[in-house]
Write a structure and sequence with these properties.
This protein is mainly alpha-helical. It contains 5 helices and 2 strands. The chain has one domain. It is 56% helix and 7% strand. The longest helix is centred in the first third of the chain and has 18 residues. The protein is globular. InterPro entries: IL-9.
Length: 135
């Protein structure tokens, strides 16, 4: 094996290890903050009444990504007009889950939760989860 082949293999391994650790932390924190700054996200969660306020899963530890995918998908489908920031968050979470990126978040494909919250509580859960990764 020649030196250029070895350097190519080492570079490829480095890329794979960096990719496996990609979490999109700063991007996700920025997007959630933008949504939290929008006053329409703070209405209460009503599980029985049909309202524009969604009840979203507040994930158990180890189920964050699956619940973030489920919650942002629900928001994306129930917002008129569709919000490009929510769509971007959904696509990012889905890619992280599908590709098993971001090793710091467990990759259970099932969203498990004991409580549901309104949009603001859901977004704050995303934000605090990613701020902990950023430390």
């Amino acid at each position: 094996m020649n030196a250029s082949m070895l350097s190519y293999i080492l570079f490829s391994c480095l890329l794979l290890s960096v990719q496996a650790e990609y979490c999109g932390v700063r991007e996700i924190i920025r997007y959630t903050q933008r949504l939290l700054d929008d006053s329409s996200v703070s209405c209460p969660c009503r599980q029985t009444a049909i309202s524009s306020c969604s009840c979203l899963p507040i994930p158990e530890h180890g189920h964050e990504l699956a619940c973030f995918v489920e919650g942002t998908k629900h928001l994306m489908e129930n917002n008129e007009p569709s919000n490009p920031v929510i769509t971007r968050l959904y696509l990012t979470f889905q890619a992280l889950l599908d590709r098993k990126l971001c090793k710091r978040l467990a990759h259970d494909d099932q969203c498990q939760y004991k409580t549901k919250g309104n949009v603001e509580e859901f977004l704050k859960k995303i934000q605090t989860t990613y701020q902990q990764i950023d430390k």
